[in-house]
């Protein structure tokens, strides 16, 4: 039973040690350029696995287990530590004495030296990869690549064509379109027309009085071209045709909502909102 337990623990340790490597190299070729970026994480996993290994060895030695696996780990531990047994410490005892404290001339543990060699090899490969061969992206290169990708995405958005004009714009009533229109209104229109369309500097949008008409076409044109003599700017540079259609639909959805603190009516009374 003890041998089975030790084998199970050994398998767990091996899994912890090698799972980061298998996960990394299972990626596609285009992702292998990030191998060195994950080096530090893999190294930490390795140290963590090594720590678990030594904990296991210590527990096995405490239990005085003489099974085959215990003997193997005992020899492995001795090889990795290269320490003298207590009964042979006199062989490496230094002559000087500090208030009764004596020093042993122990060798550096092999496991420590091996890790040190690994860090040297890793640093050489890292330096060659990023700074000599320049086969890996630099910080500046990654930044410029991200900027380029963002510019490309921006250009795609700006070049999208919409077959929407004031003549064929439709009054949208679905929740998604009205939510999009409300978001645009909240970000850009509340300073003049109020949070709920009650009117501030600009006219009340929630009553049945209209200055420039209540059809979808008329509202679309007001938002698209603005009313410069009244201080309202044109939004065609900020909004694409689809967005103008959405915010126009949201503005017309406010009619008749009667929000608190409404501004005095302006324009002509028109009872019903036109869907044209």
Shape estimate: rod-shaped
Number of strands: 4
List low-confidence stretches: 1-7, 23-33
N-to-C terminal Cα separation, in Å?
A: 83 Å
Class based on secondary structure composition and strand pairing: mainly alpha
Query: Order of SSEs, N→C?
Result: HHHEEHHHHEHHE
Q: How confident is the prediction overall: mean pLDDT?
A: 79
Radius of gyration: 37 Å
Q: How would you write the strand order of the largest sheet?
A: 1-2
Oligomer: single chain
Could you give a short account of the major beta sheet? 2 strands, antiparallel
Number of discrete domains: 2
Helix proportion range: 40-55%
Give the strand content.
5-15%
Helix count, per DSSP? 9
Give a written overview of the molecule.
The chain is mainly alpha-helical and 276 residues long. The protein folds into two domains: 138 residues, no CATH class; 95 residues, Cytochrome Bc1 Complex, Chain D, domain 2 (Orthogonal Bundle), CATH 1.10.760.10. The chain has nine helices and four strands. The strands form two sheets. The chain has a two-stranded antiparallel sheet with strand order 1-2. Strands 3-4 form a two-stranded antiparallel ribbon. Helix 6 crosses helix 9 and helix 8 packs across helix 9. It is rod-shaped, with a radius of gyration of 37 Å. The relative contact order is 0.08.
């Amino acid at each position: 039973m003890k041998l089975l337990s030790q084998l199970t623990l050994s398998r767990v340790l091996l899994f912890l040690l090698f799972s980061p490597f298998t996960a990394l190299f299972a990626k596609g070729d285009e992702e292998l350029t990030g191998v060195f970026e994950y080096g530090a994480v893999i190294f930490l996993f390795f140290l963590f696995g090594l720590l678990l290994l030594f904990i296991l060895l210590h527990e096995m030695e405490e239990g005085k287990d003489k099974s085959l696996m215990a003997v193997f780990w005992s020899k492995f531990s001795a090889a990795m530590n290269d320490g003298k047994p207590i009964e042979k410490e006199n062989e490496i005892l230094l002559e000087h004495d500090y208030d009764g404290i004596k020093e042993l001339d122990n060798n550096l543990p092999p496991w420590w030296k091996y890790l040190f060699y690994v860090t040297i090899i890793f640093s050489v490969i890292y330096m060659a990869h990023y700074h000599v061969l320049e086969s890996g992206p630099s910080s500046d290169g990654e930044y410029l690549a991200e900027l380029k990708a963002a510019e490309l995405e921006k250009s795609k958005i700006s070049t999208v064509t919409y077959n929407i004009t004031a003549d064929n714009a439709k009054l949208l009533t679905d929740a998604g379109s009205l939510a999009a229109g409300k978001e645009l209104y909240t970000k850009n229109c509340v300073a003049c027309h109020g949070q709920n369309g009650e009117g501030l500097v600009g006219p009340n949008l929630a009553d049945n009085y209209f200055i420039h008409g209540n059809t979808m076409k008329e509202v679309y044109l007001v938002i698209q071209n603005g009313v410069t003599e009244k201080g309202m700017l044109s939004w065609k540079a900020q909004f694409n045709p689809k967005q103008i259609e959405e915010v126009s639909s949201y503005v017309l959805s406010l009619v008749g909502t009667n929000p608190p603190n409404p501004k005095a009516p302006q324009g002509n009374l028109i009872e019903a909102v036109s869907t044209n």
